[in-house]
């Protein structure tokens, strides 16, 4: 009996992103059966994987997590009821395998007895043939196959993953992610950058209602919102209160930029990070009862003591309650001066948003070029982190065209490039000849018709860049621009 594994599980086992495995499948390097990978095929393609040592996978994951400014994945056990259910399921799998092996043993005993019976009443030639068959069966059953140890280690690792996490697919969008540790379905979706509908996130409003299409879930948090009996009968749950036991498929809407309502909240300053005299990051912590819903690339209005400004969000929607805006220091900007000079942790800020439609096209499989002009790095950073959390792009190239503030998060960008095989970072020094620089950039992409381009900067910078990229073959519909103030 073949041991079949879903592609998402294979990605975790071998420490490779899904898009890399999909490229191997398209190239004929990795064979699949109805979208699943046989264990023998996995061992053939990845013979060097050390199943008992995932240190390299953890290293890359930790770099990604730190780069996102989100928590490093907790090695926490699932909720006790979920853990019991998963262990029971694993016990059922073990019992089924044990029963099958006993059945095979009985078959072999019966076959051995039958051979004895036939040998008593047959010719010498037939007895010799039966003896040869018996010797072949006994020899092969006694031998340990060459890859048995690897197969055992791979299956053991996969079973550990199944105890610690569960795979979730959202329909009709097709988004997929893992629920790790003791996260709920909603927490895991948000942590993975999937913008599901929700309101309070603590079981009071009912905004996160969704329907379980297949698989088993367990209630892990009490909720005050009362579901109708007809909803319960149809498999409706609150995503903020349930966790998956095994692989589940959920019917729920994933919000687009136009679907997310403008929200207003009073939040606290977590910290002010001054990169240099020209640029600072304001880190805001949303209240526990009111996390901000937004997509990578959108903006918010920030108000402090009556002073207000609109800034692109620089953080990822996957970062729980954390919101980062990057604030350039400009003459006459009183809010910026307050951020640089006097604002401190636990001060109060008002946040209203999100605004804008400069967001990822999540249905596009194309490689991506990100183009950041100066402070336009803020929304580009948000888009990159969102794309990473969703594992969307085949490849990502970041061109950062610096202004006076320089490449103020250069180490972050280099960490992305070091950790991810499909990410390239290309910093460009400030220049007075933007046209020459843009020409040098586009000439490196002779197949621009294959790409999506996301660019953020001033309106004038964006228009000049669009002319070069479209002029060299980029389809106009694949140019996405977000204007920031000069």
Description:
The structure is a single chain. This protein is an alpha/beta fold and 486 residues long. The protein has 5 domains: 4-49, no CATH class; 80-161; 164-251, Beta-grasp domain (Ubiquitin-like (UB roll), Roll), CATH 3.10.20.30; 263-355, Beta Barrel (Elongation Factor Tu (Ef-tu), domain 3); 368-483, Rossmann fold (3-Layer(aba) Sandwich), CATH 3.40.50.80. Helix content is 37%, strand content 23%. It contains 14 helices and 20 strands. The chain has helices at 7-14, 18-26, 39-45, 55-68, 80-120, 124-142, 148-164, 185-191, 229-233, 334-341, 377-390, 410-419, 434-442, 459-471, and strands spanning 4-6, 36-38, 165-171, 176-180, 209-214, 217-219, 236-238, 242-244, 248-251, 263-276, 279-285, 299-304, 307-312, 322-328, 348-355, 368-373, 396-401, 423-428, 452-457, 479-483. Strand 16 (368-373), helix 11 and strand 17 (396-401) form a beta-alpha-beta unit. The chain is elongated, with a radius of gyration of 28 Å. 32% of the residues are buried. Residues 52-57 and 67-75 have low confidence and may be disordered.
CATH fold call of the largest domain:
Rossmann fold
Q: Please give the order of strands in the largest beta sheet.
A: 13-12-15-10-11-14
The level of helicity is 25-40%
Q: Which spans of ≥5 residues are poorly predicted at pLDDT below 50?
A: 52-57, 67-75
**What's the pLDDT, averaged over the residues?**
86
Radius of gyration: 28 Å
């Amino acid at each position: 009996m073949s041991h079949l594994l879903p592609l998402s599980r294979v990605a975790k086992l071998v420490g490779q992103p899904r898009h890399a495995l999909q490229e191997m499948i398209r190239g004929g390097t990795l064979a699949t059966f109805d979208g699943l990978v046989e264990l023998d095929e996995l061992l053939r393609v990845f013979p060097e994987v050390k199943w008992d040592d995932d240190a390299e996978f953890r290293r890359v994951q930790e770099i990604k997590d730190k780069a996102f400014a989100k928590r490093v994945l907790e090695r926490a056990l699932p909720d006790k009821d979920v853990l019991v259910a998963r262990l029971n399921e694993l016990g059922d799998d073990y019992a089924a395998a044990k029963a099958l092996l006993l059945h095979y043993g009985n078959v072999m005993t019966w076959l051995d007895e039958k051979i004895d019976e036939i040998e008593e009443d047959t010719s010498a030639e037939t007895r010799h043939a039966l003896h040869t068959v018996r010797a072949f069966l006994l020899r092969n059953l006694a031998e340990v196959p060459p890859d048995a140890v690897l197969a055992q280690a791979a299956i053991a690792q996969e079973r550990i993953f199944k105890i610690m996490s569960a795979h979730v697919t959202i329909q009709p969008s097709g988004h997929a992610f893992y629920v790790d540790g003791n996260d709920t379905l909603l927490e895991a979706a948000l942590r993975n950058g999937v913008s599901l509908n929700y309101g309070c996130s603590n079981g009071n409003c009912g905004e996160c209602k969704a329907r379980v299409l297949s698989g088993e879930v367990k209630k892990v948090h009490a909720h005050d919102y009362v579901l109708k009996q007809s909803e319960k009968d149809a498999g409706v749950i609150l995503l903020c209160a349930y966790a998956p036991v095994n692989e589940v498929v959920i019917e729920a809407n994933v919000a687009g930029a136009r679907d997310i309502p403008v929200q207003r909240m009073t939040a606290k300053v977590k910290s002010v990070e001054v990169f240099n005299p020209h640029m600072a990051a304001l880190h805001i912590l949303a209240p526990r009862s009111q996390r901000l819903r937004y997509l990578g690339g959108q903006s918010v209005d920030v108000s402090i003591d009556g002073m207000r400004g609109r800034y692109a969000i620089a953080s990822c929607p996957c970062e729980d309650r954390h919101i980062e805006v990057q604030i350039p220091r400009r003459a006459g900007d009183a809010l910026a001066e307050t951020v640089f000079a006097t604002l401190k942790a636990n001060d109060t800020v008002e946040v209203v948003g999100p605004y804008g439609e400069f967001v990822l096209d999540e249905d596009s499989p194309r490689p991506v070029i990100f183009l950041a002009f100066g402070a336009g790095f803020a929304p580009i950073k948000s888009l990159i982190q969102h794309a990473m959390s969703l594992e969307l792009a085949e490849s990502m190239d970041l061109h950062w065209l610096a202004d006076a503030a320089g490449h103020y998060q250069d180490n972050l960008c280099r960490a992305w490039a070091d950790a991810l095989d499909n990410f390239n970072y290309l910093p460009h020094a400030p220049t007075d000849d933007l046209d020459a620089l843009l020409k040098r950039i586009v000439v490196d992409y002779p197949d621009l018709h294959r790409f999506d381009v996301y660019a953020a900067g001033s309106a004038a910078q964006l228009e000049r860049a669009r002319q070069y990229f479209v002029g060299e073959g980029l389809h106009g519909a694949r140019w996405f621009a977000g204007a920031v103030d000069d």
